[in-house]
Design goal:
By secondary structure, the protein is an alpha/beta fold. The protein folds into four domains: 148 residues, no CATH class; 46 residues, Membrane-bound Lytic Murein Transglycosylase D, Chain A, CATH 3.10.350.10; 197 residues, Rossmann fold, CATH 3.40.50.2300; 140 residues, 3-Layer(aba) Sandwich (Rossmann fold), CATH 3.40.50.2300. It contains 18 helices and 23 strands. The strands form six sheets. Strands 11-10-12-13-14-21-20 form a seven-stranded mixed sheet, with helices on both faces. β17, α15 and β18 form a beta-alpha-beta unit. The chain is globular and about 75 Å long.
């Protein structure tokens, strides 16, 4: 044991020196690309470079690199081209921000960034070695990594039949304008055999280092003629003989076999659309409910080994079993319903469609920061809702300290303070944003009435729980008066022509109106179907620029540190004029007081 204690520090020390030496020579790229109103450097990763050394060289936060390059969360490989946001006046920056991840220590953080622990302590007053996940730490740039700016070398590309400037620019990782600058006087009419200059990109090493990702060429690598998809739905076929659609007073939803029938029907319409678009696929439907034996029997089937995508099972216990199979066989698997991140752990092929508390909180607070600057922000909760409340509070504090926004935050534990917890700090001059996390029909009915009375004197924006909409006693007038906003993983806008076309198609096919499950299944099948069609079986590595318009959802997948992909984007909608409006694309910035209408005496 004594000998082991001597060896470990030496090994760690050597690793730290190795990282530091590699970090000394970062060549800043001169290639740029303009995306979504932002300019990015296109940095080609060299052997030995890390995300941390690149972040320091360009004076940006690691999270900014992860946001622009979701696939880089798991690691980078020499030859990979990273988008690094271009910041103004980088020479004036003295530090960059780092947010503590699970398992990180100060020593590990200092080693990753090639700085001294003492220098981190000096820059962060009050910092101790006890770190918490999400904690903000400033990383010093006083002893900046030596950077060398060199013009990128160019290669000659021989134009092939049917190639365009756009396709060549996309393949080269640059904008069309950049390609034109390299080739003065070039026209849009390319001829096969024509020689044009393109940026030189080093070929990736054949063997990846530990924790690095495999590089795929999107749109070329992994394409197949036909794809196999498994759709695992609880049909409860053993209960189907008991269905009686006659006039027996029972609702359709009371039959187990029909619980998810519209999920199947929505998927079926999407499959038809994909086939009409020339996409060749085989979809296998499996009746998988709570019985784990059903799962094991399906996994033994010979055709299952050829699957390119698995949707479901819908129940978490069986999903875990199939997820293990998908990890072993490197097959993407989709979970439509869970909000738990645990099901993503250790499986890089798993996709979770519903956002986590952390992602929900980040989006809500970001929306409030952008829409209602200088507001009073109340987070109202009881002990039962503490986990989500803490997530919102942490997100708000990060925004307040990091971006120095003038939002005043108030925590209200309603079981202890009641409405007085709000009224004692409510402002007549500012907009008061009240995020309320409790539920229960009796509580909500009384609570809305009390808040509505306040809305005649104070400007109020209410964030409510989605399940409030299920309460029969809900007063829609109150929701309108309080400028009520709701965060959800879905929003169906029936004014959209695509939505109307889907509804008509569904009615013609199944003689009924589509419900939420039908919309959801259609979106899932269309999103992942076209991902397979466009990018092949390795589509997971190609989603950063894939953003199709869906009917009821908004998918924006981010790679988790220890597992698969989580959708980090939901939809915020609001009540206005007794209608629901997508606030994410149409925010209401001006809030006015309600006018009390006196009832005339008879």
């Amino acid at each position: 044991m004594k000998q082991l204690r001597k060896i470990i520090p030496i090994a760690v020390f050597i690793l730290g020196i190795s990282n530091f030496l590699y970090a000394q020579n970062i060549e800043l790229s001169t290639r740029t690309e303009f995306l979504s109103n932002k300019t990015y450097y296109l940095h080609t990763v060299k052997q030995g470079q890390t995300i941390y050394s690149i972040a320091r060289a360009y004076c940006v936060d690691v999270r900014q690199i992860f946001d622009a390059n979701p696939e880089s969360v798991k690691g980078i490989l020499a030859g990979v081209v990273l988008k690094v946001i271009k910041i103004s006046n980088p020479e004036e920056k003295t530090f960059i921000n780092h947010y503590v991840e699970k398992g990180e220590t100060l020593y590990k953080i200092a080693t990753n960034y090639s700085v001294k622990v003492d220098d981190i302590y000096k820059l962060n007053t009050g910092l101790t070695d006890k770190l918490s996940i999400g904690q903000l730490i400033k990383i010093p740039l006083e002893t900046k990594i030596k950077t060398v700016v060199k013009p990128e070398k160019n290669s000659i590309h021989i134009v092939q039949k049917n190639e365009t400037l756009f396709s060549i620019a996309k393949q080269s990782g640059i904008a069309v304008d950049e390609l034109k600058k390299l080739n003065a006087g070039i026209s849009e009419n390319l001829q096969p055999g024509q020689q044009i200059k393109v940026p030189f990109i080093e070929v990736a090493q054949k063997t990846a280092e530990k924790d690095s990702i495999v590089v795929f060429e999107c749109g070329k690598t992994g394409l197949q003629g036909t794809y196999n998809i498994a759709l695992m739905i609880p049909f409860y076929l053993d209960h189907s003989q008991s269905i009686d659609t006659g006039n027996n007073g029972k609702s359709i939803s009371s039959y187990k076999s029909l619980s998810f029938i519209q999920f199947y029907e929505g998927a079926r319409l999407a499959i038809d659309s994909l086939e009409k678009a020339g996409f060749s696929l085989k979809v296998y439907f499996y009746d998988i409910a709570e019985d784990t034996n059903q799962v094991y029997e399906v996994l033994k089937k010979s055709e299952f080994a050829s699957m390119n995508l698995i949707i479901g099972p819908l129940f978490s216990s069986n999903f875990s079993i199939v997820s293990e199979w998908s990890k072993k066989h490197n097959v993407p698997i989709i979970n439509p319903f869970t909000t738990k991140c645990d099901l993503l752990k250790s499986n890089p092929n798993a996709f979770k469609l519903n956002t986590s508390f952390r992602s929900e909180s980040k989006q809500i607070i970001g929306f409030i920061k952008d829409t209602y600057k200088d507001c009073n922000l109340f987070i109202v909760f009881n002990e039962k809702e503490k986990e989500l409340a803490d997530s919102l509070i942490n997100a708000a504090n990060l925004e307040i300290t990091h971006n120095k926004i003038n939002i005043q935050l108030f925590k209200v534990i309603y079981s202890k303070e009641g409405l007085a917890g709000i009224t004692k700090s409510i402002s007549e001059s500012k907009i008061n944003v009240i995020i309320t996390l409790m539920d229960g029909e009796a509580f909500v009915s009384s609570y809305l009435r009390n808040l509505n009375d306040l809305a005649y004197k104070y400007k109020i924006v209410l964030f409510a729980e989605k399940n409030w909409e299920e309460y029969n006693s809900l007063e829609i007038e109150y929701l309108n008066n309080l400028n009520t906003h709701i965060y959800s993983n879905s929003f169906i806008d029936y004014k959209e022509s695509k939505t109307q076309d889907f509804v008509l198609n569904f009615r013609n096919s199944y003689k009924t109106d589509p419900d939420y499950y039908a919309f959801q299944a259609y979106d899932i099948m269309m999103y992942f179907g076209y991902a397979l069609k466009n990018y092949g079986k390795n589509f997971q590595s190609c989603l950063s620029n894939y953003n199709p318009t869906l009917l009821e959802a908004s998918y924006n997948f981010r790679k988790t540190v220890d597992g698969g992909f989580e959708n980090v984007t939901g939809i915020i909608y609001r009540y206005e004029d007794y209608k629901m409006v997508n606030a994410s694309v149409n925010p209401k910035r001006e809030i006015i007081l309600n006018e009390k209408i006196e009832k005339k005496k008879p």
